Amino acid sequence: MRRRLAWQAARLHEIRAETATARTLVLDVPGWPGHLAGQHVDVRLTADDGYTAQRSYSLAAPADGDRIEVTVETVPDGEVSPYLTEVIEPGDQVEIRGPVGGWFVWRPESKAPVLLVGGGSGIVPLMAMIRVRRQADSRVPFRLLYSLRDEDHRYYAAELRRPEPGLDITYLYSRTSPPGSARPAGRLTVADLAEGGWPADFAPDCYVCGPTGFVEAAADLLLTLGHAPERIRTERFGPTGD
């Protein structure tokens, strides 16, 4: 039987800047049961008058005992994200419920090559998969296609710059490409996936995460390239979330 999820108190241990508008929150959650790469949690805030607001955020790393990480992007006029990125301080508490999700997950015992396709903050659960692979000392080859507006919006920049055997990364810029870039700025194309991804006959497991339009377009392009529908797993978020 599935465990019934309950709200748990979580205390902020540390906060790290990823970009000008994104922060990684390191939270201590006593009794945390562990989680899989690709799962997410619900975060709930309660105001002094009793009003509550909650949002879902992807887990960004494997659990370290009772310690978990989520990365949050500020959404202007949002109810939850501005507090988590601009107000909360170490020692403050929020409520957590999770882990949630069982389809969009990667397990290190899997032997198939992996293609990760992330748009914007959709990199977060994919980064959890990369970190779990590293932690497990897995030899499964990973390829990451990371689409973002420009270099200033790159999450986990220092970590992803470090060479890692078996992990190939392709950056795709939708608004402004870095000087000297061979690829002009623009949306994800079938050529991007053909060049930076795996051939369909390699039967890779494909994970696509990002805004709804990006995810739908990427999934369609993967189908065009011949990837099996059952090997394409998607996770999307809409424009109203924060």
From TrEMBL:
<dbReference type="InterPro" id="IPR039261">
    <property type="entry name" value="FNR_nucleotide-bd"/>
</dbReference>
<dbReference type="GO" id="GO:0016491">
    <property type="term" value="F:oxidoreductase activity"/>
</dbReference>
<dbReference type="InterPro" id="IPR050415">
    <property type="entry name" value="MRET"/>
</dbReference>
<keyword id="KW-0001">2Fe-2S</keyword>
<dbReference type="Pfam" id="PF00970">
    <property type="entry name" value="FAD_binding_6"/>
</dbReference>
<dbReference type="Pfam" id="PF00175">
    <property type="entry name" value="NAD_binding_1"/>
</dbReference>
<dbReference type="InterPro" id="IPR017938">
    <property type="entry name" value="Riboflavin_synthase-like_b-brl"/>
</dbReference>
<protein>
    <submittedName>
        <fullName>Ferredoxin-NADP reductase</fullName>
    </submittedName>
</protein>
<dbReference type="InterPro" id="IPR008333">
    <property type="entry name" value="Cbr1-like_FAD-bd_dom"/>
</dbReference>
<keyword id="KW-0411">Iron-sulfur</keyword>
<dbReference type="InterPro" id="IPR001433">
    <property type="entry name" value="OxRdtase_FAD/NAD-bd"/>
</dbReference>
<keyword id="KW-0408">Iron</keyword>
<dbReference type="GO" id="GO:0051537">
    <property type="term" value="F:2 iron, 2 sulfur cluster binding"/>
</dbReference>
<feature type="domain" description="FAD-binding FR-type">
    <location>
        <begin position="5"/>
        <end position="106"/>
    </location>
</feature>
<keyword id="KW-0479">Metal-binding</keyword>
<dbReference type="InterPro" id="IPR017927">
    <property type="entry name" value="FAD-bd_FR_type"/>
</dbReference>
